[in-house]
Amino acid sequence: MNCLPMNKSAWLGGVLISACLLLASCSDGAFKLSEQERAAFRDAAPEMKQTWENGLKAEKANDYLTASTSFRALLSKPITPDQLVAVQTALGALNYRINEAAAKGDAAAQKAVEALKAGAPRR
Fold first, then answer.
1. Which residues pair with 4 in a beta bridge?
2. Domain span at residue 89?
3. Structural contact between residues 112 and 123, judged by C-beta atoms closer than 8 angstroms
4. What is the pTM of this model?
């Protein structure tokens, strides 16, 4: 298994890629996970697989903070390149959905945006 340890610059690169993808697209389907991406953690360690599945379930339930926390937790683990792409795509989709919902007045999304801003790493 080819694992990559995540450091700050790799994490920042992932965030920048997610942001670029978000800005480059305006359609709802832009961030749909492919079947390959959904299966990226199928053979992962049980803890990592559970974290991934928790993130997917939370996103589906519009539990934005839990989903974000789950996906971001995976970035601090040694993950494969395919897993990194899956997590970045999932975070991009989540960020898009949170911002769209917040702009439409969704109170939970607005709360999530504020919480995520407050917890964002400072440079």
1. 79
2. 64-123
3. no
4. 0.71
Sequence-distant (≥ 6) Cβ neighbours of residue 79 within 8 angstroms: 3, 4, 6, 44, 48, 87
Residue at 17 is within a domain: no
Does residue 107 lie within any of the structural domains?
yes
The count of domains in the chain is 1
104 belongs to a structural domain? yes
Judge contact between 50 and 42, C-beta under 8 A: no
pLDDT category of residue 123 using cuts at 50, 70 and 90: very low
45-94 confidence digits (pLDDT tens)? 999 999 999 999 999 999 999 999 999 999 999 999 999 999 999 999 99
Q: Tell me, what DSSP letter sits at residue 120?
A: S
